[in-house]
Amino acid sequence: MSRAVLLGVLVAMLAALLAPASAPAAPSLVDIEDEVMCVSCNVPLNIAESAQANRQREFIRGLIADGRDKEQVKAALVAEYGKDVLALPDDEGFGITAYAVPLGLMALLAAGLA
Q1: Distance CA 94, CA 5 (A)
Q2: Rounded percentage of the chain residues whose pLDDT exceeds 90
């Protein structure tokens, strides 16, 4: 391979690495529905069929139309409905016990079986 071709390939690779990353795609309702709960039904929003679920969906659609990303939409939902709207517990404070306790129990069981 000639030096000119090799240099061209290296320059192209370097340009690709240094090019700014494209902006993430705007979230869709489907991206968010399975990560939040209907506050009246206490089921994931993607399977809820209540009038409240429909209001929450419209709220989310409005936030997406305003250009909010997924985390901003979730933050707005928490501000509007409280932390119970999130399907997953916090990954800090008391919420971390929802992750730590099952993992700890599995580790103890694995140690006992080994």
Answers
A1: 58
A2: 51
Instruction: Tell me how far apart the alpha carbons of residues 85 and 43 are, in angstroms, rounded to a whole number.
Output: 10
Model pTM score = 0.61
Query: How many Cα neighbours within 13 Å face the side chain of 103?
Result: 5
Would you list the domain boundaries of the chain? 23-101
One-letter amino acid identity for 2? S
CA proximity to 39, closest of 82, 74, 94: 82
H, E, C per residue of the chain: CCHHHHHHHHHHHHHHHHCCCCCCCCCCHHHHHCCEECCCCCCECCCCCCHHHHHHHHHHHHHHHCCCCHHHHHHHHHHHHCHHHECCCCCCHHHHHHHHHHHHHHHHHHHHHC
